Amino acid sequence: MRKVIAVAVILLIVFSVPVPLAANEGDIKVFIDREEVRFGVPPVFFNNRLLVPMRTMLEALGAEISWDGETGTVTARREDRIVMLKIKEPYALVNDKLVELDVPATIIQGSTMVPLRFFSEFLGLQVRWNAEQRTVDVESSVFIPFERPDQDTEKLPPRIREWVESSWDELNIQVKMVEGKMYILTTFGLKPTGGYGVEIKKIERTRETVKIVIDFIEPLREFYTTPVFNRPYDLVCVDPAEVGASTYFICFTRGLKEGELPVRLELNP
Questions:
Q1: DSSP code of 207?
Q2: Residue 66: left (phi > 0), alpha (psi -120 to 50), or beta?
Q3: Cα angle at 59 between 57 and 61, to 5 degrees?
Q4: What is the pLDDT of residues 133-166, one digit of tens each?
Q5: For residues 128 and 137, is the Cβ–Cβ distance under 8 A?
Q6: Could you tell me which residues come within 8 angstroms of residue 37 by beta carbon, excluding any fewer than 6 positions away?
């Protein structure tokens, strides 16, 4: 009888009050389409399954979330997929189909925690766990993969090298088709010092167009480096088939003032 009571007390502690994380669990990082997700409650392993705060994760994925307090039911909607689950129940409804859960949704430190892999699989996402770096990479179904050619211009194909070197003194974003590949070039212009940077973070396909997100970074004045001329740029290439029939990009240039670069970018054959 005492053993039964002891087990009940342990379960009550696990599921009802804040759970202390192991020393090496708080450094787990989760990235969605190469953007790190910041959680109020850190991801935690439970029964060999990684649990993450549901609301933060789903909002980062662009899902709609609703909560029924009377039944303790959470509903998530993303595109044509609907997932419903109850706190501590070992199953979920995915498009009205009953699916068993390895780990039920659980309250930890006041946050509803859900198994990341379950939600990712049934929302049509790809998940990769890097045990060495302790990172999780999640790619949405609309994420367009891209590659970065060698940043040493001397190693680029002649046409691409000429294009980069003739463009890198100006602030600009360009797209060009070369030998069956689609290249995207973003340049920050001629800078008098180091510390400037530009990076294409992600490219997403929507129903109507393609969205490209670019970070432009300027150094703080107190961190200016040796005054030497610099030409920050980023160059990536994508498979045109991934872009589909879209004829233009919508650009989100973070770190620049509105209007410094056009929002709409026409494709340049």
A1: S
A2: beta
A3: 75
A4: 888 888 765 678 899 987 777 888 899 999 999 9
A5: yes
A6: 30, 31, 56, 57, 60
Provide the residue ranges of all domains of the chain, joining segments of one domain with +: 23-139, 153-266
Grouping H, G, I as helix, E, B as strand and the rest as coil, residue 215 is strand
Whether the CB-CB separation of 183 and 161 falls below 8 Å is answered with: no
Q: What mean pLDDT, rounded, does the chain reach?
A: 80
Q: Name the 3-class secondary structure at 136.
A: strand
Task: Give the phi and the psi of residue 62 in degrees, each rounded to 5.
Answer: 80, 20
Q: How far is CA 211 from the centre of its chain?
A: 14
The C-alpha atoms of residue 169 and residue 190 are separated, in whole angstroms, by: 5
What the block records as the tokens of 37 is 């997700």
Bridge partners (DSSP) of residue 44 are: 51
Instruction: Give me 178's structure tokens.
Output: 């070369």
What letter would DSSP give residue 87? T
**In which order are the strands placed within the sheet that holds 44-46?**
44-46, 49-53, 111-115, 106-108
**Any idea which architecture 23-139 has in CATH?**
2-Layer Sandwich (3.30)
Side by side, the strands of the sheet bearing 73-78 are 64-68, 73-78, 81-86, 91-94, 97-100
User: Measured at the alpha carbon of residue 246, what is the angle toward residues 240 and 251, in degrees to the nearest 5?
Assistant: 95
Angstrom distance (rounded) from CA 252 to CA 26: 31
CB 65 within 8 A of CB 59: yes
Q: Kindly tell me the burial class for residue 197, based on how many C-beta atoms sit within 10 Å of its own C-beta (0-12, 13-18, 19 or more).
A: middle
Q: Are 232 and 191 in contact (CB under 8 A)?
A: yes
Distance CA 127, CA 219 (A): 34
Instruction: Report d(CA 56, CA 109) in Å as an integer.
Output: 14
pTM for the structure as a whole: 0.53
pLDDT digits (tens, 9 = 90+) for 13-22: 333 333 333 3
